[in-house]
């Protein structure tokens, strides 16, 4: 019997495993609240209740903004508040959040608008800041190195970070109006990531690195393949080369939506996998496997089908999961946040099906 670490990595590396990992996307507060009314034991972790495998252990290196901005309410207007969030954006949001984890946010302005404000933002990304690692970091690394569970480092990367700084619409315009600044920002972000890790990465055997991007939406990416090739590919090659030369086994891109023509460029850069394969955005899991037979994938279970009947849940699982598992390189789970309209009984049935498939039992 394999330990979790070996099973998880072998799966993504297309190597033999005793069974697939039985993991799930983090279940958000509003969904757990709805399930409590249906009998879910409040306070019990989903990994315990559903008998799941551990998804990962996080490597404690802060790869983001530090210090963050102080959150501040600037104005209250009826049910809304105008406030500054911890990334420096000015937002207008509801004061009361009814469904935790499922909210519509609105942005009014962002902290980076030009070269001067970018220079100010750089002061919050000092790679040598001692606060980037916790107390007893060396001891934590030792525990990760001997753990039976795969360890994982999350890195906010190019499109993700620039969007937080500039805002989505203004960032898209900036690619055309100020491409020089885009190049400078992307080079700085990549340098920061490598410099932050350079004196730390030898202390911990990092199994998996996630490059957080979220640069796609329904039926299309947010950046064209040609622009990715020009602005982002060289930095992808740099960061992936650095990570893998320092022992990282898997590098994947976190990208909701439909990435389409970006996938071949990720593969060219040395990316091993993508997460999640979001069916609601237009992805076809089986077709993607045909197109990219050695590219790892996470997710792929259509959340919308789980909200229907148990027959629909069965059809969703049986129509794709067995053949995907046979081909390897695939870790199945719901294709994004599990909505609170999915009945608890349906989700339990889904987990039962997944366990039976994993252990080769009759459905």
Can you describe this structure?
The protein is built from 16 helices and 13 strands. By secondary structure, the protein is an alpha/beta fold. The protein folds into 2 domains: 4-67 and 111-358, Alpha-Beta Barrel (TIM Barrel), CATH 3.20.20; 70-110, no CATH class. The strands form 3 sheets. Strands 1-6-7-10-11-12-13 form a 7-stranded parallel beta sheet, sandwiched between helices. The model has no long low-confidence stretch (mean pLDDT 96).
Poorly predicted spans: none
- The strand order across the widest sheet is 1-6-7-10-11-12-13
CATH topology of the largest domain: TIM Barrel
Tell me, what is the CATH class of the largest domain?
Alpha Beta
Overall CATH architecture of the largest domain: Alpha-Beta Barrel
User: The biggest beta sheet, please?
Assistant: 7 strands, parallel
Relative helix content: 40-55%
Q: What's the helix-strand series?
A: HHHEEEEEHHEHHHEEEHHEHEHEHHHEH
What value does the average pLDDT take? Answer: 96
Strands, count: 13
Distance between the termini: 23 Å
Overall tally of structural domains:
2
- Count of helix runs: 16
Rg over alpha carbons: 21 Å
Question: Strand share of the residues?
Answer: 15-25%
* Class inferred from helices and paired strands: alpha/beta
> Judging from the principal axes of the Cα atoms, what is the shape?
globular
């Amino acid at each position: 019997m394999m330990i979790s670490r070996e099973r998880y990595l072998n799966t993504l590396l297309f190597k033999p495993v005793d069974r697939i990992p039985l993991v799930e996307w983090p279940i958000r507060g509003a969904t757990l609240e709805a399930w409590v009314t249906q009998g879910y034991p409040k306070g019990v972790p989903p990994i315990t209740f559903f008998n799941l495998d551990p998804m990962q252990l996080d490597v404690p290196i802060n790869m983001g903004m530090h210090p963050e901005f102080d959150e501040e309410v600037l104005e209250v207007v009826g049910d809304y508040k105008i406030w500054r969030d911890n990334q420096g954006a000015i937002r207008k949001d509801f004061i009361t959040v009814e469904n935790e984890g499922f909210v519509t946010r609105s942005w009014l302005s962002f902290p980076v608008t030009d070269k001067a404000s970018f220079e100010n933002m750089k002061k919050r990304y000092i790679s040598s800041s001692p606060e980037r690692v916790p107390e007893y970091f060396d001891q934590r690394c030792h525990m990760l190195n001997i753990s039976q569970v795969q360890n994982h480092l999350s890195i906010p990367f190019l499109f993700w970070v620039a969007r937080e700084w500039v805002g989505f619409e203004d960032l898209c315009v900036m690619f055309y109006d100020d491409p020089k600044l885009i190049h400078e920002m992307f080079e700085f972000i990549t340098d920061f990531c490598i410099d932050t890790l350079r004196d730390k990465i030898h202390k911990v055997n990092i199994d998996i690195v996630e490059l957080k991007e979220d640069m796609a939406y329904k039926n299309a990416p947010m950046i064209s393949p040609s622009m990715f090739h020009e602005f982002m590919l060289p930095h992808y090659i740099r960061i992936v080369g650095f990570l893998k030369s320092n022992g990282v086994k898997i590098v994947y891109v976190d990208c909701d939506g439909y990435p389409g023509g970006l996938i071949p460029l990720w593969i060219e850069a040395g990316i091993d996998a993508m997460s999640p394969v979001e069916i609601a955005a237009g992805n076809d899991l089986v077709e993607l496997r045909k197109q990219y037979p050695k590219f790892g994938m996470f997710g792929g279970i259509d959340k919308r089908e789980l909200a229907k009947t148990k027959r629909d849940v069965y059809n969703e699982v049986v129509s794709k999961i067995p053949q995907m598992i046979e081909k390897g390189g695939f870790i199945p789970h719901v294709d994004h946040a599990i909505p609170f309209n999915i009945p608890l009984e349906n989700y339990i049935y889904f987990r039962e099906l997944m366990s039976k498939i994993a252990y080769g039992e009759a459905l």
